[in-house]
Design a protein that fits this description.
The complex is a heterodimer of chains A (194) and B (421). Chain A is α+β, with helices and mostly antiparallel strands. Chain A has a four-stranded mixed beta sheet with strand order 1-6-4-5. A two-stranded antiparallel sheet of chain A has the order 2-3. In chain A, strand 4, helix 4 and strand 5 form a beta-alpha-beta unit. Chain A starts with a helix and ends with a strand. About 21% of the residues of chain A have low confidence. Chain B is of the alpha+beta class. Chain B has four helices and 28 strands. In chain B, the strands form six sheets. Chain B has a seven-stranded antiparallel beta sheet. In chain B, strand 13 and strand 14 form a beta hairpin. The longest helix of chain B is centred in the N-terminal third of the chain and has 20 residues. Chain B is globular, with a radius of gyration of 24 Å. The chains are: A alpha+beta (194), B alpha+beta (421). Chains A and B meet through helix 4 and strand 5 of A and strand 24 and strand 28 of B.
């Protein structure tokens, strides 16, 4: 009798611990995740959908990944930010407040790079300085990104390989409040995404 | 001679009767001194935490209103006779008295309030309000609103909430606070960009989020927590505002940014502007007959107004300066607040709905997102003045402004609700 009691106690403890340790994910297929309001389904994140921030562990050390990292490094070296005058989205040479560049030269280098690596895709991020208003600057940032995209398309790059986004004035590179910081912040930033 | 005397007498009677009938105050002099109000209650026969909450918030609201300062030299309980309190106030050259006490009974707090007009020796309000420990600030806001309503003829603005976005340059989240900047609550915590929140009803806000990479406009019920994706059919969609029982959203289509009417399912109903340049920031008159917006169709961003009924005429309203943006039509439909930029300095300006009587109300740096309170007198906006990066509350009658909330982070939009219960 005593042995039976000990056995039952162990069995109950083990089953209790087992039930605690199991993570219960609602399954997509039956959609019957119980609970309040709308059925919420939770699935394990898929390895192939990993973002650049959390790369797939299976490919971290692969040859392709190393090559990709190398391409990214090269891209970063040539795809410098291009800058704009206040309230403008013209691609034109700029020589003011510490900025001394011809954006067309940078865009030409990006176009050449994209031709050399026909599989890569990029994103152009349009930004503005802090002086304008948020809503107008979002539209202006988008125009700046679009201007660079159009230039690259004119150089023979497929528009499908270029996506654009605007952050308006919400992501300043230099948070100071002076003409030099503003000049730095009126920019297109280029990111390799694939 | 007789006629002359009769005429003088008539003029005298006319002028004295019109003086007697006037009790609205329009303050337009920036050097105007605030009215001293006796805040002589809520110390005696009042639990300490209730006293602290009510008095602190009333004083804060007085300061933000730009109308009042508090005198706390006396303490009276609710039972004190009005004639005695008014008598003492008169001796102290004080025109208005707020006094009373509060009693706790179970979960409820009974706030016994008296507001008196010492000059006329009358009682403005004598009422018991039932509240709870979590709503004491709101109760204090109500007291100040009643007083502002009596003194100026327009009920005060403090029974509203401000929704705003704030970030560090890498992420931005949505927050809600009281109109005076108290009780800040964070709404999103998504480690991404969430900007340009707008109230679209008394319980729902919209905002722009980059949560899924491509910017999308979300609808969020602040009470139920229900979140719905409203619109993401463009690589650039900007904040949604209420337009009749639908929404107006500026977004990019075929390379130009126009304002569109969108239904609650995110479907485009019609174009509200038709121009190949930038057209953003729609704001509507209360009857939705006119839309005020920003366009760079003539080179620089300027404010335009469009008739939404035939003949659909578009008229430019701003001609001074090269950068005028972020218009907000007042809830009474009579005024437009907007931001004007000149040589790095930004100005909050207010003009009549037809563009006349254009005037500077406030000056600062990076002023943005002006939003009217429901009384059409106060404006909340973000920006920098001196070393303060803050949400400011501006009294457009007298130009007085004060800080509601200060931060070192970057503000990414702001909107004031209508009057909440």
């Amino acid at each position: 009798m005593r042995k039976l009691l000990v056995f039952l106690t162990i069995l109950l403890t083990v089953s209790f611990l087992w039930s605690c340790s199991t993570t219960k994910y609602a399954k997509n297929s039956n959609g019957a995740a119980g609970g309040r309001g709308q059925a919420e389904t939770v699935t394990n994140p898929q390895a192939e959908s990993s973002t650049l921030k959390y790369p797939n562990v299976n490919t971290l050390n692969s040859e392709a990944s190393l090559k990709y990292q190398q391409i990214k490094k090269e891209f970063r070296a040539i795809a410098k930010d291009i800058h704009f005058k206040f309230n403008s989205y013209q691609i034109q040479p700029i020589h003011e407040y510490g900025i001394d560049e011809n954006p067309a030269e940078i865009l030409n280098r990006i176009a050449e790079f994209m031709k050399k690596h026909p599989k890569i895709k990029i994103r152009i991020e349009g930004n503005c300085d802090e002086r304008g208003t948020i809503e107008y600057n979002l539209a202006l940032g988008e125009k700046r990104a679009m201007a660079a995209k159009n230039y690259l398309v004119e150089q023979g790059i497929s528009p499908d390989r270029i996506s654009i986004i605007s952050y308006g004035k919400s992501r300043p590179l230099d948070p100071r409040h002076n003409p030099y910081a503003w000049a730095k912040n009126r920019r297109d930033h280029f990111v390799i995404i694939k | 001679m007789r006629r002359f005397i009769v005429a003088i007498l008539f003029l005298f009677i006319l002028s004295s009767s019109s003086l007697g009938a006037t009790y609205e105050i329009t303050i337009s002099n920036p050097k105007y001194k605030p009215i001293t109000v006796a805040l002589w209650g809520f110390v005696k026969n009042t639990p300490e935490f209730v006293s602290k909450a009510l008095i602190n918030t009333i004083k804060r609201d007085f300061s933000i209103s730009g109308l009042f300062v508090a005198d706390q030299s006396q303490h009276f309980s609710y039972e004190a006779p009005v004639s005695v309190v008014n008598g003492i106030a008169k001796l102290d050259n004080i025109d208005y008295v707020v006094y009373g006490n509060a009693v706790i009974s179970g979960e409820n707090i009974y706030v016994n309030l008296k507001i008196t007009d010492a000059l006329r020796n009358t009682t403005v309000i004598d009422k018991t309000f039932v509240t709870n420990r979590y709503s004491l600030d709101w109760m204090a806001d109500k007291i100040v609103d009643i007083l502002i309503g009596y003194v100026t003829g327009i009920y005060g603005p403090f029974e509203s909430k401000i929704v705003f976005a704030m970030g560090n340059g890498k992420t931005s989240d949505i927050y809600i606070c009281d109109f005076n900047g108290q009780n800040v609550v964070r709404i999103t915590n998504w480690h991404t960009f969430n900007i340009l929140p707008k109230w679209v009803s008394t319980d729902t806000i919209t905002f722009l989020s980059y949560r899924y990479g491509k910017p999308a406009v979300f609808l969020f019920n602040v009470f139920s927590g229900r979140l719905v994706k409203l619109f993401n059919a463009s690589n650039l969609s900007i904040a949604a505002v209420r337009f009749r029982n639908k929404f107006a959203i500026a977004f990019n289509r075929y390379g130009s940014t126009n304002i569109y009417e969108i239904n609650e399912k995110g479907r485009v109903i019609r174009k509200l502007t038709n121009d190949p340049n930038i057209n953003v920031s729609p704001s509507f008159t209360p009857d939705y007959s006119k839309m005020v917006f920003v366009s760079n169709r003539e080179g620089n961003p300027q404010i335009y107004i469009k008739e939404l009924n035939s003949p659909y005429e578009v008229k430019r309203l701003t001609f001074q300066g090269k950068y005028n943006s972020s218009p907000a039509v007042s809830p009474d439909g009579k005024k437009i607040a907007y931001i004007s930029l000149e040589g790095g300095v930004s100005y909050l300006k207010v003009m009549n709905i037809d563009g006349t009587n254009d005037r500077v109300v406030m000056q600062g740096y990076s002023l943005d997102s002006p939003s009217w309170s429901y009384d059409s007198r106060y404006i909340a906006l973000t920006g920098r003045v001196g070393d303060k990066n803050a949400i400011f509350i501006v009294n457009t009658d007298n130009g007085h402004y004060s800080v509601a909330m200060e931060t070192k982070l970057i503000y990414n939009g702001l909107s004031v609700s209508s009057k909440l219960q």
